[in-house]
Amino acid sequence: MLRSSRAALTSTARATSRQVSSSTTNPTLLSGRSSTSSSSSSSLLSKYNRYSIHLSIHRNANANANANTNTNANHIRALSSSSSSNTNKNSNKTDSQKDPSNNDALVLTPGQKVVAGTRLTLYASAFLFGSFCLYYIAKELIPTKLSPNSIFSTASSQVTNNPLVQRRFGSPIKCYGRDHGGHREGRRNFIEHTEYTDADDGSSRVRVRFNVEGKFGAAFVFCEVSSKMKSGEFVYLLVQDKRNGHVITLVDNRSRILAERMGGGSEAGQAAFGNLLGGGKN
């Protein structure tokens, strides 16, 4: 549209200039048509001026449109560059969050490392101590045949029901653990015991010592249990008077165990060694 307007204005201007030049160069026409040519030339000049004004207006509008287009394009480029920079920043943040090596928050100072190491040591120590306590609590609450409390219970039952012990120390007879010099029952619940492995047969053994007391005196009780014997059986069970050291033997299977070990798997050999050693008292 601008090009067609420019072409029309150019052709009109050229026609007007031709008419003006022809009227000035022809002397016959100048004399006869002075009034007509002056009016026509003034009208042509006014048209030419109007077309020049319209042409300048169209040029200014075209320039403004081009400027607006360039401004919008620059604005769009700025927006796109800012959006891309924001996207890159977000992607960098996401990458830093995914990759712990790039996260500055995980970098510990020497003081923080010391604190973290101390905490880990305390937690590990507390865990080990709790496991140790839990093991011994379970061992006491769920006794086996080698448990000191289980051995004490079985041995005390045999001692208090034995007629020789009842005549010697009187009835009733009470049994208790280590005597700390007091009279409170809670202080005498600990059972003295020793655990070891027998060097001859490789069995696990437990030795127990506790106290008995009756109306006529008190005594020590010594007993031993082997892992190769049935539950309720003893290697020996002895009662020793505290006043004179007299020993009452309730159970003594040491000779029988020795005969079984020396005789091997043969029953005849075990019987022979048992007769030679005098047998066992049970």
Q: C-alpha Rg, in Å?
A: 61 Å
Q: Which fold does the CATH topology of the largest domain refer to?
A: Nuclear Transport Factor 2, Chain: A
Instruction: Tell me the β content.
Output: 5-15%
Can you tell me the CATH class of the largest domain? Alpha Beta
Summarize the structure.
It is built from 8 helices and 6 strands. It has 282 residues and is an alpha+beta fold.
Give an account of the 3D structure.
By secondary structure, the protein is α+β, with helices and mostly antiparallel strands. It has three domains: 2-83; 109-142; 148-277, Mitochondrial import inner membrane translocase subunit Tim21 (Nuclear Transport Factor 2, Chain: A, Roll), CATH 3.10.450.320. The chain is built from eight helices and six strands, in the order H-H-H-H-H-H-E-E-E-E-E-E-H-H. It has helices at residues 2-25, 27-32, 34-98, 110-141, 148-160, 163-169, 254-263, 267-277; strands spanning 174-176, 192-197, 204-213, 218-226, 236-241, 247-252. Strand 2 and strand 3 form a beta hairpin. Helix 1 (2-25) runs antiparallel to helix 3 and helix 7 (254-263) packs across helix 8.
List the helices and strands and how they pair.
Elements: H1 2-25, H2 27-32, H3 34-98, H4 110-141, H5 148-160, H6 163-169, E1 174-176, E2 192-197, E3 204-213, E4 218-226, E5 236-241, E6 247-252, H7 254-263, H8 267-277
Antiparallel strand pairs: 1-3, 2-3, 3-4, 4-5, 5-6
Helix pairs in contact: 1-3, 7-8
